[in-house]
Amino acid sequence: MGGGNIKLESLIKRFDDFTAVDDISVEIRAGEFFSLLGPSGCGKTTTLRMVAGFEPPTSGEILLDGVDVGNWPPHRRNVNTVFQSYALFPFLTVAENVAFGMKYKSVPKSERDDRVAEALGLVQLTGYEHRRPNQLSGGQQQRVALARALVLRPSVLLLDEPLGALDAKLRRALQVELGALQKQVGITFLYVTHDQEEALTMSDRLAVMNHGRIIQLGTPEEVYNEPVDAYVADFLGVSNLMDARVESGGNGQRPCRLRLGDFCLEAQTGQLDAAGAVKLAIRPERIHLHPYETSGDNLVPGMVERLVFLGSTTHVYVRLASGSALQTLVRNDGAALPYSQGTPVSVGLPADSLRVLPDPGVSVAEIHEKTTGDQVLDVTSTTPS
Amino acid sequence: MASTVDKPVAARSGVDKLAWRGRPRGNPWRRPWLMEGFTWLYIAWSIVPIAIAVLFSFNKGASQATWQGFSTKWYVGSQVTSVLHNPSLHQAVIQTLVLAVLTTLICVPIGVGFAIGIDRWRSRTSTGLNFVMIFSFVVPELLLAVALFLLVTQALTFIRLGTSAEVAGLVVWNISWPAIIVRARLITIGNTYEEAAADLGASRIGAIRRVLLPLLMPAIFASAVLVFASTVDDFVIVEQLSSTAATQPMSVLIYANVHGGLSGPALNALATIMLVISVAAALIGYAGYRWMTRGEGTSKRGTEALTGITGI
């Protein structure tokens, strides 16, 4: 055990004429929970498979604790993988599955049973030793797959969408468990997912990927609060994107002044010195709704289009007079909402929450399509509270 | 009708036409008599002759056409012409079983290796070898049999006509079964299990031995049964490659005696034994495949077992 530092240097993977991973360089610290996040086809799984040893890199280096393992076969690397399909051996019992790899790690026979018991205890499956994988639920199979990898005490654990096949409630319970487990065993987790909620709740740091490249790297807070571009803003959580024009650029002291349709706004975060066409982003929870014709800065008139009651909150969809559609959150505090479909309101977009992002040259709808292309839009899970 | 007067005539006729087209003629859920009838005709056509042949193996008299009462004399009773007591008849049964067992034992391991090689080691060679896999479906059996006969009598004379030549021919002829069935299963199970094994520390060979082979067991078993049954039924190859009466299996003996010689219900008895061995092998295969894949939890295992056994 020990170690677990992964360094990817200029990693490239091409399949015939398709570049799956396009020059990735990143260092993952020992003991870190690191996520690769992106839509399907963004290169995250290929990156993971190269670290595991299932695909040789076209060029670049994979340094595992300082040693380039890029061309080592998988069985010689001190990393273990939890597969999306679990890949439990159906003809072996749970205990035999977990013990499978110990034969190769020269673990003394006398110690193997203890290690199996310990690993199954870790994933709370004590007592299931003699079951077959097909007698377990999806969540239990997932735990066996985890135990089978952890029992070998690898320096790095690779997880390829491990919760992808589970239902939403179980997935959320396992997210919390997986995070706690990682802190307990202290080894590096490299986690691949297309689910932004998973990446945000569990990771120490995460990399948002698209088209084989890393777009943004940072802590969940950084990536959520300070997205570098409209793509990241839209991919992580619900982001309201608006097309705007810069009237006068700002800097650290001075806010950026923008024009949104016929209205003037000030923004204090993001790329304040931008000019021309930009995208404006704001998170639903930062938007305030006021009675119609309230006066003040950064207020834009709008009209309620739709209300979606979600229990703890209500999503209020508002159409601004400038034409942009926004989604806001209203906490359920017991009082009846003073809005219904068609209610005119004043929408407060606080300057410290408005983020100026470079214009990628495509419409808001196109960005949205790209970031949600392979996901079912699930309004209940897209906004972490 | 009074109410139709105020509607435009054109519109009304259009509606009527639509309604007429949409109306089902007769009961769509009625029994499909025609299809059912043909199915039963087909079944009768294929089974009745066999049933009659089996029936006359139990004939008391020596006729294959006139029923003279039930008896098992052609199996065990008669000291001269029963399968049990006539040396050439029971030698044929033994020879058939020897050939079937030997062919299965040699053919299946080679076929499995063949399938794994083609599927997991991708190259130009393996693509070319794909053709060899469907060899026996393309080449006429008689052609192969004659060619093999020439080969072992003219060139490879160290292979003697008789059991060794018969086994060699049957192995070549039947190699497609394990190759195709095992390959189909290889495609179904995919690469993930082997990757998981490699990830846990197993080498390439280790992964094949500890993970792939157990997963392939149902297919291996099914193809073994199929090779066995197909060898029992084989006639063309063994007819060419057998030498003396001692190396004639059942099929060759029946053919040789059907117009004279050892005719009579004893031949029916021999054919019935052949039939029973083949059917038993298929049933064992079906049940075994289902039992071995019981942990896989798909509802279509019955069909899968059937296709596994028949190789389709």
Judged by helices, strands and strand pairing, the structural class of chain A is alpha+beta
Portion in beta strands of chain B: under 5%
Q: Which bin fits the share of residues in helices of chain A?
A: 10-25%
Beta-strand segment tally of chain B: 0
Question: Averaging pLDDT over every residue of chain A, what do you get?
Answer: 87
Oligomer: heterodimer
Distance between the termini of chain B: 63 Å
Described by the principal axes of the CA atoms, the overall outline of chain B is globular
CATH class wording of the largest domain in chain A: Alpha Beta
The CATH homologous superfamily name of the largest domain in chain A equals P-loop containing nucleotide triphosphate hydrolases
Task: Give the class-level CATH name of chain B.
Answer: Mainly Alpha
The H/E string of chain B reads HHHHHHHHHHHHHHH
Low-confidence stretches of chain A: 374-385
Number of strands of chain A: 21
With helices defined by DSSP (H or I, 4 residues minimum), what is the helix count of chain B?
15
| Radius of gyration of chain A from CA coordinates | 24 Å
Radius of gyration of chain B, whole Å: 28 Å
